[in-house]
User: What shape does this take?
Amino acid sequence: MSKKVVVISTSLRGNSNSEQLARSFAKGAEDAGNNVEFISLKGKKIGFCIGCLACQSKGECVIKDDALAIEQAVLNADVVAFSTPIYYYEMSGQMKTLLDRMNSLYPKDYRFRDVYMLSVAAEDEDHTPKRAESGLQGWIDCFEKAELKGTLFVGGMNSPNDINGNEKLNKAYEMGERV
Assistant: This one.
């Protein structure tokens, strides 16, 4: 059965290593027959959550920017995959800002059940992505029907295009195929 898959690349660098990883995941999901929407935060205007909680009563954020359309895509997805560069052992600030802005999903009948995290960093230790994964898990924990289905980390990515030829691009593709 075909699924609606939303892949969100949170890097603001064009054709970044994490974006290439996200595109590989998206290609695998698409080749497996799923309906894939690829969203890049590059060029998007996404303001900070102001904590007013109006979204809980109004059903949407009062800040009218690009976060609203992304939130609607996530609401209606079966699968959501986030791809992020790791900065200072944490997800990108723009990814965290987007997660905060999707607060109005909390009381809604969201469709997504499976969430994936793809990440890259210059550091290459096993512990490098753990805080970022924990941060995403904190968001997922607010959605009792959803779970973190998989993570993929690629370390040693110091410069643009370092990921070219890396076998983990194939792993991302295979992970996408299995959604």
